[in-house]
Amino acid sequence: MRLRVIAGEFRSRFLKSLPGLDTRPTPDRLREALFNVLAPQIEGTVFLDAYAGTGAVGIEALSRGASRAIFVERNRAAVEVIRDNLAALGIADRAEVFTGKATPVLERVTADILFLDPPYALVKEYEQSLALLGDRATGLVVVQHPHRQPLEESYGHLQRARVLRQGDNALSFYQVADIAAAALDSTSR
Questions:
Q1: Predicted TM-score (pTM) of this structure
Q2: Could you write out the DSSP letters of every residue in 53-102?
């Protein structure tokens, strides 16, 4: 599969990917929809890409103005692909790459926007990550999941503010409860 950066500083640049099904890159159209929603708030943020695979989502965030990106991936071959992609674009100094499970990293790092895309077969990863982040009252959390997989409306302090569906995929946007209520209120006007 040929992956490319959709917009921003690195628009149309191709990224390396891994053959096989060990990683499931976020489709271009879904990535574009995600960043259309995030566009007003991406500039200058720290963006965390958990279960990063090839790093395409975090690299897209950097391309569109995020100041830093944190990548978390347990597959060592995928980590090398992320490092290669960052080096090829000359942005390794704007990124931090962690090799290992996501939850220990989520416990100790902070970011303005967190993107979670666990392998669909690892259903427990969704619950564990969201429960952890819900207790930490963090920034915006976006979760990619199969649209048929139910996620809770809230996890601790996090409240779902929006669901965006595209094909078999969905993006659920979670924010701290007070912020989510204000966001929903402003969109209903």
A1: 0.90
A2: TTSHHHHHHHHTT-SEEEEEES-HHHHHHHHHHHHHHT-GGGEEEEES-H
